[in-house]
Structures are given as C-alpha cells and as structure tokens.
C-alpha cells in the first residue's frame, strides 16, 4: 500500500462531502489514520480537522484497549459520544483508518451510523492507510 497523495485526499474529501449531503445534520467529518494523522476532512477548518483527528484517534485507541481487556477483542466497530449540542461518531474505516463524524444533537444516530457504514463498505479499499515503516537505527541517530 502507498501513502495517499494530494489527489487522493481531494477524492476522499469528496466522499466526505457526499456523506454530509446524505445527512445534512453532519457538521464535519475527518478520515484519519489510526495514529491520528488527518487524511481528508470536510466541514471543519484545518486546525479543527487536525484536532478532531487527534481526539478521534485517542478515543478509538482507548476503546480498543477496553475491548481487549473486557471483551476479549480489540476490534472496535463504533464509538459514540453524546455532547451537549453535538454527537461524535468514530468508526473503523479499513486497515489502519478511522472515520470521525460530528453531527448536530438532533441528528438521528441510527441514520448517521448507517450512512457511515454504507460509505465505508462502498469504498473501504480506498480508505486503507499504509502502516508507517519502523524507524531504523539511522533514523534514530539522525533525529538526535
């Protein structure tokens, strides 16, 4: 697998726009790598999208740890947080990829979850994120 190019990010942003078109209550969405690097975003400014990616990565990771400890599996399907005036949905989106969606409080969670799952199922191979290569001894020496 290769890293996403700028054109890939634009194509993925188009997919996220389509998700917002299907569910107008969606205020913003971010596709990110499991380690929190933003791949594409829609409806959020760059700083907001990067912060959403970091938060979603952390929540996803914590939930994986909870699953491994208490459910016997680190597989996470979806994390949902109900905030005062918003709902946050975080779903596994393919190899090393996560989709985070911020919706209005009035959004139907079943509809948001359904449309997220439908998008992910339709384009999952394009959402995969290549694993980062492990640092070598030369990389570590160069960073010191």
TrEMBL record:
PANTHER family: SERINE PROTEASE INHIBITOR RV3364C. Residues 13-103 form the Roadblock/LAMTOR2 domain. This is Roadblock/LC7 domain-containing protein. It comes from Actinomadura napierensis.
